[in-house]
């Protein structure tokens, strides 16, 4: 159906103009998922869940600069509390060495989660930009297409 449609909403026209952007976004999204899931091998479930909240400061920072969203002081206080909590969690994992999970090296696991959370934040801001300025149908179709392709390659 999308191949038959004429004009700028045609699948082929979209792929011609923006294929590389969706390719990059697909890779970022896939690798964010991979890093967070891989972190479970190294650190505890609690650490992964708490450190994954690093997405919030990343999204707020990127939204401020690229989407020109403005936040209030209470939002920035929340970010500081979030980052302090994550620092305490990472420090506790390294210093105390909780045996809650089967983690071998908790610092590596924590860094994987933070990397995945950063990529999630980048992905979320890019998605917001696309949905605001283009089409949510286009976004869902293209992220599904490229995400499936790169997931298959990584598998």
Largest sheet: none
The percent of residues in helical segments reads over 70%
Radius of gyration: 19 Å
How many structural units, i.e. domains?
Answer: 1
Globally, the shape reads: flat
Chain oligomer state: single chain
Structural class: mainly alpha
> Which series of helices and strands comes N to C?
HHHHHH
Q: Which runs of at least 5 residues are low in confidence (pLDDT < 50)? A: none
Strand content: under 5%
Terminus-to-terminus distance: 29 Å
Number of beta-strand segments: 0
Number of helices: 6
Mean pLDDT, rounded to whole units? 81
Give a verbal description of the structure:
Its main location: membrane. The chain has one domain (17-134). The protein is flat, with a radius of gyration of 19 Å. Helix 1 packs antiparallel against helix 5 (106-133). The mean pLDDT is 81. It starts with 10 loop residues before the first helix and ends with a helix. Helix content is 77%, strand content 0%. The protein is an all-alpha fold.
């Amino acid at each position: 159906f999308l191949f038959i449609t004429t004009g700028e909403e045609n699948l082929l026209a979209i792929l011609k103009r923006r294929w590389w952007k969706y390719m990059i976004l697909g890779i970022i999204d896939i690798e964010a998922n991979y890093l967070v899931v891989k972190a479970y091998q190294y650190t505890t479930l609690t650490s992964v869940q708490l450190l994954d909240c690093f997405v919030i400061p990343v999204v707020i920072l990127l939204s401020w600069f690229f989407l020109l969203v403005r936040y209030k002081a209470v939002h920035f206080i929340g970010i500081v509390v979030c980052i302090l909590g994550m620092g305490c969690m990472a420090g506790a994992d390294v210093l105390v060495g909780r045996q809650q999970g089967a983690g071998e090296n908790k610092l590596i696991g924590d860094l994987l989660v933070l990397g995945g959370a950063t990529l999630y934040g980048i992905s979320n801001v890019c998605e917001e930009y696309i949905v605001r300025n283009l089409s949510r149908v286009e976004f869902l179709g293209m992220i599904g297409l490229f995400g499936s392709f790169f997931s298959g390659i990584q598998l």
